[in-house]
Structure formats: C-alpha cells, structure tokens
Write a structure and sequence with these properties.
The chain is mostly helical. It has 3 helices and no strands.
Length: 68
C-alpha cells in the first residue's frame, strides 16, 4: 500500500468518525479523532521528507502534535 492510499483511507475513516461524533452530543471528547489527526500529520511529514533526510523522533512528534 502506498502512502497516498493510506492517507486516503485514514482521511475517509476520520471523516466518517467526525460525522458520527458531530451527531452524538454525548461524545464530546474524541481521542480517536485526535489520534487519527496525529497519524495523518506524521504520515504527511514522512511522505514529504527524502529518504536521506536525518529526522529526529522528537521533531516528528512535535510536528505531529504528539506529546511525550
């Protein structure tokens, strides 16, 4: 599976889940959506970087809004 395909699937899952959460007034906290946002951001960053780039894990986590 290519990065583009994975991102499309994650975006589709996120959109479906967002619509479900939007219609459920009891579902105010959405950790699964937060996790999907982080994963999508991380994949976008990795997809845009070159294989030769030296990437620090902390920088990736910060750019993806992932707390340690």
């Amino acid at each position: 599976m290519k990065t583009k395909d994975i991102l499309e699937q994650l975006e589709r899952i996120r959109q479906e889940r967002f619509l479900e959460a939007h219609h459920d007034s009891y579902d105010l906290h959405q950790p699964d959506l937060d996790a999907l946002d982080c994963a999508i951001s991380l994949l976008n960053i990795l997809d845009e970087s070159n294989p030769n780039d030296e990437v620090m894990v902390g920088e990736l986590m910060a750019a993806s809004n992932i707390d340690r």
